[in-house]
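Quarterly update from the structural biology core.
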Amino acid sequence: MIFLGRQYHDRGWAMEVHIGALRSANSRMVREIGPNTGFDSVADYQVARNLASLLNEMEETGQCPKTILFTLNAADNWVLATMTGNFMGDEIAGKIQLGTAWWFMDHRDGMEEQMRVFANTASLGRFIGMLTDSRSFLSYPRHEYFRRIMCNLIGAWVENGEYPADEDMLKTIVQGICFENVHQYLGV
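Predicted structure, tokenized:
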């Protein structure tokens, strides 16, 4: 992973780290009907020390790539979110990011919690937003679902007086999260 991370850095690519999946938990069923058939769950690994070691090793040579940290375990949101601040660089804003809610967390409660943690530990305006599992045509409507949840969450903060009711600023944040930030982040 260190070798690949350094290669990503040298090429200007982003690295994704997906943490917290326990794959193929029911071995009898996996033997009967095969792998990737739905016998996965959330794992509860300790991630902070190993993740810090991985990112630090690449940072030592100045080759820590843009990195998006995804967790399947909501208990790790704060660990990953606070870890992002340890390895920021001046190459790009939001170089290390907490990835969007993923897999079992890809629902309203999971998305809202992930965005709350992101907003409390970083600049939500730099968030690169929702990902798509391009292997599944049906995953594309998740972007619309995500956008509605995000706008409702930000709107509630505005209504509660927790965020400015500045329409131009809100438009910039929402457009950034929905398109501009990932476009800039990935350089596409």
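The mean pLDDT is 92.
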